[in-house]
């Protein structure tokens, strides 16, 4: 069969439910009949698998060395290109498809999200269908283009999309200082943040000096990305407007301008995208969107300054109560006693991989490499990684208590969530 085209018998697919974790969409897909999990990332043009044990059974063949380029300090990443693979999502199947395999554990999404993710995929899902993306109900649905009815209801806004190099771009407006700029942004479902802008002093695209802090921004295909975080006065898509939205400015060392679409000024990511539901029509370069129940949610920052990753497992000795039934031989009385026993179980381990040096947490003594044992007097493994991150996005002044292990020694730290923009002195009470 010909390469690069999905086949689907029905006029539209069944709902394909997804998980939304840290603003990223995790979808189930089969590769060579093996069920895997992918991040749906409109910012990538090629499907990429990571070096995870489950991919060993995928049966990759016809491989050769290839280089991928993306955000990150190293600029490029070595990978293997494999041809002749099949993909299936919902009722749609794609045959004879190339994919790329990265043998670098640092690139995997799994440690950052705390759930198993095998790869990323983007353009290949959008190119053959009208893709319905419903953030509020957590599903996507694929529609055949020739049977799709255009959204004419006033609830839906129609915007032009520019599909360049297999990626979607749209125009928006941003107010950073005293004037409003028209900008072109990559529509990037693979970014957790609200907005990324590439600094351009000549155009007035740079952060407010009174409202900025240095921070770790995340990982790109080519390594860690650092930069500055700030807020914009206003950000507009079509007739929709957000005030005081989060924005990040990646360092120039993390951005290879020779590999970036020259008209691009940045990216709009999941923190804003999740506030709408969509129909993507790549074939006609059209986007339909309407706001959902998340539209008015406030924009928050990680006020702890701590970035955690799932770093392997830990063995935990836990108490369990075993009921012992005693029957009295001389009467019908029965007594039940609880006997304490112990069992060893496997639990996730969370490690601090980045910490903002201006944070209260850093001032109190927490450091990279510390492994969490407890959070607010509960066992750390009783939390999902996303639940701990939600605590870290709490209001300024909220007290957080962390018990950690450092080089075999257990330690307890207590600090208050700070305002990243204000460089607060650490609280000691």
UniProtKB/TrEMBL annotation:
GO terms for molecular function: peptidase activity. The keyword Signal does not apply. GO terms for biological process: proteolysis. InterPro entries: PDZ_sf (IPR036034), Peptidase_aspartic_dom_sf (IPR021109). Signal peptide: none annotated. It comes from the Bacteria. Keywords: Hydrolase, Protease. This is Aspartyl protease family protein. It comes from Winogradskyella pelagia.
């Amino acid at each position: 069969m010909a390469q690069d085209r999905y086949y689907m018998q029905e006029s539209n697919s069944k709902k394909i439910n997804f998980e939304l974790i840290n603003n990223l969409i995790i979808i189930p897909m089969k590769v060579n009949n093996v069920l895997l999990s992918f991040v749906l990332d409109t910012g990538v043009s090629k499907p990429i698998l990571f070096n995870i044990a489950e991919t060993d059974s995928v049966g990759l063949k016809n491989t050769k060395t290839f280089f991928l380029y993306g955000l990150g300090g190293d600029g490029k990443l070595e990978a293997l290109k494999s041809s002749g693979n099949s993909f299936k999502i919902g009722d749609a199947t794609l045959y004879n498809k190339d994919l790329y395999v990265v043998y670098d554990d640092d690139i995997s999404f799994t440690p950052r999200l705390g759930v198993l993710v095998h790869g990323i995929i983007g353009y290949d899902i959008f190119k053959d269908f009208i893709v319905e993306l419903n953030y509020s109900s957590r599903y996507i649905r694929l529609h055949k283009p020739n049977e799709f009815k255009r959204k004419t209801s006033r609830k839906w806004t129609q915007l032009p999309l520019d599909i360049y190099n297999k990626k979607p771009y749209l125009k928006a407006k941003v107010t950073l200082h005293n004037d409003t700029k028209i900008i072109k942004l990559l529509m990037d479902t693979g970014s957790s943040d609200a907005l990324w802008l590439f600094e351009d002093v000549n155009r007035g695209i740079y952060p407010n000096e009174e409202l900025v802090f240095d921070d770790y921004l995340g990982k790109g295909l080519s390594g860690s990305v650092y930069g500055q975080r700030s807020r914009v006065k206003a950000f507009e898509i079509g007739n929709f407007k957000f005030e005081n939205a989060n924005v990040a400015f990646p360092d120039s060392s993390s951005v290879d301008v020779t590999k970036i679409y020259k008209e691009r000024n940045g990216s709009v990511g999941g923190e804003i995208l999740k506030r709408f539901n969509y129909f993507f029509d790549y074939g006609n370069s059209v986007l339909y969107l309407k706001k959902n129940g998340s539209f008015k949610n406030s924009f928050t920052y990680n006020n702890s300054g701590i970035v955690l990753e799932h770093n392997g497992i830990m063995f935990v000795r836990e108490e369990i109560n075993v009921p012992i039934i005693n029957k009295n031989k001389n009467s019908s009385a029965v007594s039940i006693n609880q006997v304490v026993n112990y069992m060893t179980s496997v639990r996730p381990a969370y490690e601090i991989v980045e910490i903002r040096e201006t944070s209260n947490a850093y001032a109190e003594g927490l450091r990279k490499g510390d492994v969490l044992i407890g959070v607010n007097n509960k066992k750390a493994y009783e939390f999902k990684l996303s639940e701990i991150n939600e605590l870290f996005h709490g209001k300024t002044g909220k007290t957080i208590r962390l018990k950690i292990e450092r080089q075999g020694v257990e330690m307890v730290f207590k600090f208050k969530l700070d305002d990243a923009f204000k460089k607060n002195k650490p609280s000691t009470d």
